[in-house]
Amino acid sequence: MKNGIDDLAVLGGAKLFATPRSTSSLVPPDPARVKAYLAPLFDAADGEGAIVANLERRFALFHDAADCIAMANGFWSLVLAIKALALPGRSEIVMPSLTYRRLADVAAWAGLKPRFCDVDQSTLAVSPATMEPCLGPDAALIMAVHPIVGVCDAAGLAALAHHRQLPILFDAVESVYETLPQGRVGRFGNGEVFSFHASKLLNGFEGGYVTTSDADLARRLRSARDHGRSTTGATTGAMTTNARLSALHAATALAALDGLSEQIVHNRDIYNAWCRHLADIPGIRVVPFDTTWRTSFKNILVELDPATWPLTRDMTVRILNAEGALARAYYAPPLHRKPMAYSHVPADLPLTDALASRFLLMPCGHFVSVEDVAMLGHLMRLLARGGSALRERLSAAGCTA
Ligand SMILES: *Cc1c(COP(=O)(O)O)cnc(C)c1O
Q1: Strand, coil or helix: what is 138?
Q2: Hey, which of 195, 299, 361 would you mutate to test ligand 1's pocket, going by the most ligand atoms within 8 Å of its Cβ?
Q3: What is the mean pLDDT of residues 106-117?
Q4: Is the distance from CB of 137 to CB of 130 less than 8 angstroms?
Q5: Which of 136, 134, 86 is nearest to 112 (CA)?
Q6: How far apart are CA 166 and CA 157, in angstroms?
Q7: Is the CB of 298 under 6 A from ligand 1?
Q8: Which ligand 1 atom is the nearest neighbour of the CA of 78?
């Protein structure tokens, strides 16, 4: 425990954590379960196909969706789904700016130009109201993204898309377990995209998938992930790719699904500990999960109020990182401020700009304990009290961020 700001690692003190505490889930899969799911590889002619088909069945059920198409990762799930859905002859994909940092790259790989829209201040997600003004005559597709805590108004956005006769795809990577009043995430729009990367709720180490109720889209995605192969064997001459999910990753993701309820119990304990330890510290709050509906409690998102919190968000992140707590900015810079070597529509988004300097993600996941959170709560209290003096010391040392 640290007694004063002189003990902070950023000023030369000892680190709070010798091994870093991450903001990622990093749940290790149960080796016995992985092995059991891999068994068809060793005793069936098409073992690999059977394992992937098993995963697709299980995840369609999990989302209460008609179909699930497994892919090599979330990124290529997005690219291939966008390419399959975008209206031909149109150039723009409408998406939030305050979002996953690679999403504009996804658009570029799909051959579309991102047009960035604002988010709703209370949900930090796109809404029909923030999306609508960006839907011009060149809009080829709506790319809605669920925020990192909670969900977006998926039913409202799907209704807007329907009204405007535009396809809508959801990036639902961060909301894989959540439920809305109208049904589970995974059932909305033309399709929804998920990831099995180790940082996500379900760890397959790599992998992703698309859920959809559109049988034609499912058929086209199965072909697209596999060099454009069709059941008839015909070749079209189109540019192809390989985005198949391997059996090893599929087996790992299936094992992760089996362990999900334990993980969520742990996540809830961590979330409750964060809420408890930050409750009475001025200028800082935990963004709450809505527990009316099913939620994973996965991410710990914290908001700093610049009027009362004595340090900038970036200084706060730097101080935490020096202690071995790998806190990170919740989306900075926002995409419309990111240098981009490819084509995009310039945007003026003052609300997104303001929000992009207030939020940070705190350590959580498998390797973070309730005791770790207590230590970090103590540290945040120290920053709230000694922050002004610390800010001057850091500025004097050349850290002005
Ligand atoms: C991680 C992530 C992705 C990409 O998934 P990968 O499997 O890592 O390619 C896409 N969208 C969001 C919101 C993500 O967090």
Answers
A1: coil
A2: 195
A3: 98
A4: no
A5: 86
A6: 11
A7: no
A8: 10
